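User: Here's a structure from my thesis project, written as structure tokens. My advisor, Dr. K., wants to see whether a designed sequence matches the one we expressed. Can you design one independently, without my sequence as a hint?
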């Protein structure tokens, strides 16, 4: 009996891991990822001088609360700027964003993309 308990614990945590692996696609990301930092602020300042970290944090919050009700959050670096601008136009009405929310989401997505894309 003593030996059985750790065995059960190991096998339950293994199956939890397996379930997690199955359900996560490579194009999806969780809330602790894609967090904006001063790095994104610096990049975006070249385009929009008034941007603050608080704006990007607000955009991040919108993305992870309003853009994952129908599908999971996508990896930002998976899509081009052109694709994101198109999708944000398409999706903002679906997520019922007001103009300010849409603006903050756009700033967050595009600055994160510019700061983190590899090519
Ligand atoms: C009411 C449901 C709904 C909400 C809310 C929603 N989406 Fe979507 N999204 C969809 C559907 C359905 C598709 C696929 C078909 C299409 O493009 O219309 C999609 C597709 C996408 C795609 C394209 C993925 C690909 O592989 O080409 C992106 C990017 C996207 N959504 C981003 C967002 C963002 C950003 C938000 C928040 C502003 C959002 N979505 C909110 C329903 C939703």
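Assistant: Designed independently from the structure alone:
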């Amino acid at each position: 009996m003593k030996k059985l308990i750790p065995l059960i614990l190991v096998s339950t945590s293994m199956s939890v891991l397996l379930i997690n692996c199955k359900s996560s696609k490579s194009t999806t990301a969780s809330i602790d990822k894609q967090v904006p930092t001063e790095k994104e602020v610096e990049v975006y300042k070249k385009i929009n001088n008034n941007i603050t970290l608080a704006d990007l944090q607000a955009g991040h919050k919108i993305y992870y609360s309003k853009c994952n009700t129908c599908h999971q959050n996508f990896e930002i670096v998976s899509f081009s700027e052109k694709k994101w601008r198109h999708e944000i136009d398409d999706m903002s009405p679906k997520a019922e964003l007001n103009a300010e929310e849409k603006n903050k989401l756009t700033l967050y997505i595009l600055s994160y993309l510019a700061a983190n894309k590899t090519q």
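When you compare it with your expressed construct, this may help: DSSP finds five helices and no strands in the chain.
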